[in-house]
Amino acid sequence: MPLKIPPATQSKLTKLGIRTPFDLVLHLPLRYEDETKITRIADLVPGESAQVEGEIIHSEVMYRPRRSLVCQLQDVSGDILYLRFLNFYPSQQKQLAVGKKIRALGEPRMGFFGDEMVHPKCRVAGESVPLKQALTPVYPTTAGLPQPTLSKYIHAALNELALDDTLPEALKKRLHLPDFDASVKLLHQPPPNIDENALLERAHPAWMRIKFDELLAQQLSMRVHYRERSLRVAPKLSAHNQLTDGLLKDLPFALTNAQKKVWQEISHDLARPHPMQRLLQGDVGSGKTVVAALAALQAIENGYQAAFMAPTEILAEQHFLKLRDWLEPLGITPVWLSGSLKKKDKTAAAERIASGDTQLAIGTHALFQNSVEFKKLGLVIVDEQHKFGVQQRLALRGKGTTSNSVRPAPSNPVRPEPVEGTNGGPNERSGVTQEPHQLMMSATPIPRTLAMSYYADLDVSVIDELPPGRTPIVTKLVSDARREEVFERVRAACLEGRQAYWVCPLIDESEALQLQTALETHATLTQIFPELRIGLAHGKLSSAEKAETMAAFKAGELQLLVATTVIEVGVDVPNASLMVIDHAERMGLAQLHQLRGRVGRGAAESMCVLLFQQPLSELARARLKIIYENTDGFEIAQQDLRLRGPGELLGARQSGVPMLRFADLGEDDKLLDKARDIADEMLRDFPQEAQAHLQRWMANEPDYLRT
Ligand code: ADP
Ligand code: MG
Q1: Which atom of ligand 1 is nearest to the CA of 290?
Q2: Cα 579 to ligand 2 centroid, rounded to whole Å
């Protein structure tokens, strides 16, 4: 920093996330104190902060109700206000001696003695001490860094830095946004008669400018990464439509229009010589798996391998079984790889992958451990991608094909896109690392504003229709007091030849407790339903046991499956038509939506019973209301965003993602739309300004987007 800041102070600033002088500029006040005017004691309103001025007419240390310094301040109209200090220094006592003229700022309240202020901020008053000309900012700070010190450095930064505008004049005019320089200065030193509410609610034009700039930086950065990807190289996997048509012919159903549309988008991407990074979104049950299978076949048709990764063993295994059924008739035998395989089997699987003997590997994240090498990996498919962390997404890219060579660094991605190579494309260039294409799938719908902010570097395909023949799921909220009735429902459904899930209460604090709860629930339900065949699935089962249980449930040998949330993702048993979620009030909205999506997959009318325990917290009540009233995953996600904010929604696993500090995706969606349009325009027409803007805002950001 060019500002002279002692190391001790700097380390405090670092705690606040302040590393550069520009960070100081963006360290905006939480609120303001008004020291620009004097309020008469008679006009004070309890609870409303104000400044009074007067003379100390009495000052004494009292011991009851506890040791404190109590002064009486009298203003010009003769009214008296008590000032009370529980901790005080002798110097303060001197400052507040009888006869001194004082200005005190604080929140008045009805006190022990009468109207009082506890720990007001006091300063010496007098003719020679003018009132402040601007509201006094109150900054977020940390222990050992008092407001005045922080304030001093912030103002030094404001004065020393050239805060020239990165937004071209024409765009600023069109958007009706004020100058950047004026906006930050206004927020740090607002003039006395400003609309304070607009400041606090971040609705003032100055706030709009800051929020817009933040969103613009984010959009620019995403677009730049997006372009940078088109400088990288991936195998060209053309659509030969041999294997893919074979699968389509064999399927017992026809693709929905939505599936056809997304499949076209993916097929087209795969045929380009640049890595695809496409997010395939589709609500629970919309039929993403078959699209993934088609994509894998297009890679295989071109002599490349595909890898299909799922976050849990149950889900990965289910994919394996399904894809094996689909692909074996086409002469393709997938290989299964998971962490829980015996060492010998794991080695054998890894060898088949390394030798190119298998064209498709399906499994858990074990697929992407260092020990697994692909002969010729062309496509990576990640199911339920939000369950994986940024790190795991990163590991995928390292599995390219000619990994001993280094690709040339892109010169300047802000420059316009290069034209694609014509002589067979970069595929044939020697010494260039090829990256696999990536298809990421998610049933956790991401609200539009969130997708635009955090997934803008990806292409997105959406399956927005469910396969025909599904009957809507009826959702019921049932208080735990009426548990007996739910038992009867379960019994009835199973005796009618259908199947049911019973999801055990979620115990966040301890895995051991979670397991114990599952075992107990299973034992209890076994007693209640002696006539039913009941299975148990939880995270601690060995994968063989898990697979066996799931297979038995799928085959209808088990009628009731007691399970922890391990069945949350992907499990597909169309004959199951009743889902009971025990202690539904403990679960998040995305989880409830996923669990509910396990039923309603066949022709039978399905029901989801949300058992809840009273009393409900306000948040739990809001969640249950949302899940009860909505079936559309996107709507649920949008409401979830409003309820919890983006940080929570993206989840801790995505914590590599820098959160917005100023803009609010729940409220600033119009601003976000504008930022996106302007980002494209700036990259095209004002590349220098775009670069300057990115440098200003993104200097500190981690390079997470390169995953
Ligand atoms: P998800 O998108 O949740 O992963 P799946 O791929 O598991 O959904 O599909 C759910 C069920 O719907 C599966 O049983 C699948 O075979 C079936 N399915 C997929 N596409 C269609 C379709 N076009 N018509 C009928 N059934 C379909
Ligand atoms: Mg799925």
Answers
A1: 6
A2: 18
Using the CB atoms, write b or e for 222-242: b if 16+ within 10 Å: bbbbbbbbbbbbbbbbebeee
| Confidence (pLDDT) at 422 | 35
Name the pLDDT band for 650 (thresholds 50, 70, 90). low
User: Per-domain residue ranges for the chain?
Assistant: 1-33+136-198, 37-131, 235-463, 473-630
Could you tell me whether strands 335-337 and 121-124 are parallel, antiparallel, or unpaired per DSSP bridges? unpaired
For position 656, what pLDDT does the model report? 41
480-493: per-residue pLDDT in tens?
Answer: 999 999 999 999 99
Which residues have C-beta atoms less than 6 Å from ligand 1?
Answer: 253, 255-256, 259, 282, 284-290, 443, 467, 570, 572, 574, 601
Q: Give the angle subtended at the CA of 524 by the CAs of 521 and 528, to the nearest 5°.
A: 130
Say which residue, 32 or 664, is predicted with more confidence.
32
- Residue 53 phi/psi, 5° resolution? -135, 140
Pocket probe mutation, ligand 1, options 247, 263, 283, 289, max atoms within 8 Å of Cβ: 289
Nearest residue CA, atom 26 of ligand 1? 467
662 forms bridges with which residues in the sheet?
none
CA of residue 442 to ligand 1 center, whole Å: 14
pLDDT higher at 402 or 351: 351
Task: Render 541-585 in DSSP notation, one character per residue.
Answer: S-HHHHHHHHHHHHTTS-SEEEE-GGGSSS---TTEEEEEETTGG
Q: How far is the CA of 458 from the centre of ligand 1 (A)?
A: 24
- Which residue, by CA, sits nearest to atom 15 of ligand 1? 287
**Is 90 exceeded by the pLDDT of residue 428?**
no
How close are the terminal C-alpha atoms of the chain, in Å? Answer: 31
Q: Compute the distance from residue 290 Cα to the ligand 1 centre, in Å.
A: 7
- Going from the Cα of 308 to the center of ligand 2, the distance in angstroms, rounded, reads 12
CA of 473 to the centre of ligand 1 (A): 16
CATH assignment of 37-131, among 2.40.50.140, 3.40.30.10, 3.40.50.11240, 2.40.30.200: 2.40.50.140
Cα separation, 460 vs 439, whole angstroms? 10
pLDDT at 630 over 60: yes
Q: Which atom of ligand 1 is nearest to the CA of 288?
A: 2
Average pLDDT of span 672-696? 92
Domains 37-131 and 235-463 equal at CATH topology level: no
- Tens digit of pLDDT for each residue in 370-421? 778 999 999 999 998 766 665 565 566 666 554 333 333 334 444 433 333 3
In the numeric block, which tokens belong to residue 213? 């700039």
Atom of ligand 1 nearest to the CA of 574: 14
Q: Per the confidence metrics, is the pTM higher than 0.85? A: no
Q: For a ligand 1 pocket test, name from 283, 284, 290 the mutation site with the most ligand atoms within 8 angstroms of its C-beta.
A: 290
Q: How confident is the model at residue 225 (pLDDT cuts 50, 70, 90)?
A: confident
Determine the residue of 322, 572, 606 to mutate for testing ligand 1's pocket, defined as the one with the most ligand atoms within 8 A of the Cβ atom. 572
Note if the bond before 65 is cis, omega within 30 degrees: yes
pLDDT, tens digit, 9 for 90 and up, residues 43-94: 999 988 899 999 999 999 988 778 899 999 999 989 999 999 988 888 888 9
8 A C-beta contact, residue 53 and residue 127: no
* pLDDT: which is higher, 427 or 446: 446
How far is ligand 1, taken at its centre, from the CA of residue 287, in Å? 3
Fold classified for 235-463? Rossmann fold (3.40.50)
CATH 3.30.1300.10 fits 473-630, yes or no: no
